[in-house]
Amino acid sequence: MSSQHKSVQQELKPIYQCDSKVHHTLQSVKDHLHQLCANHAHRLVKVETMDGDVFEGHIVHCDRSILYICLSNEGARRGFFPSPGFPPQQQTYSNVILPLVLFNLLAISLL
Questions:
Q1: Residue range 82-102, pLDDT digits in tens
Q2: How far, in Å, CA of 64 to CA of 82, rounded?
Q3: What is the pTM of this model?
Q4: Residues 50-62: pLDDT tens digits?
Q5: Phi then psi for 70, rounded to 5 degrees?
Q6: For 71, which of 9, 28, 44, 53 is 20 to 30 Å away at the CA?
Q7: Pairing label, strands 105-110, 54-63
Q8: Distance between CA atoms of 34 and 41, rounded to whole angstroms?
């Protein structure tokens, strides 16, 4: 590594650094949500994100900070075949797995 590259690397300063209290709170929330989702695996849920998006499906897995849900048939049809003119969906099931970031979830409700 050149000395010029080392000096540039030493001069870099972060434009954002998470406050230690915020980090602790986020870690606590992540751990709580992970346990909650693991305890309700394979259950039908309605999930609302902080952006207002709403999804219905079964909890498939929760890994680190990601919740994976298998979208329900009704949600998949609304989401992927929204308007007239599209042929009707032939399959009677959906295998669309949607990954959702735990920190972006506002609510999880059992259906």
A1: 445 545 544 445 589 999 998
A2: 33
A3: 0.67
A4: 999 999 999 999 9
A5: -90, 115
A6: 28
A7: unpaired
A8: 11
DSSP state at residue 12:
-
Q: How far apart are CA 65 and CA 18, in angstroms?
A: 17
15: DSSP letter: S
Q: Is the dihedral of CA 16, 18, 19, 22 positive or negative?
A: positive
Tokens 């003119």 label which residue? 85
DSSP sequence for 27-94: HHHHHHHHHHHHHTTT-EEEEEETTS-EEEEEEEEEETTEEEEEE-HHHHHHHHS-STTSPPP--S--
Task: Give me 76's structure tokens.
Answer: 């998949």
What is the C-alpha to C-alpha distance for residues 30 and 25, in angstroms, rounded to an integer? 9
Task: Give the count of alpha carbons within 13 A of 40, CB side only.
Answer: 20
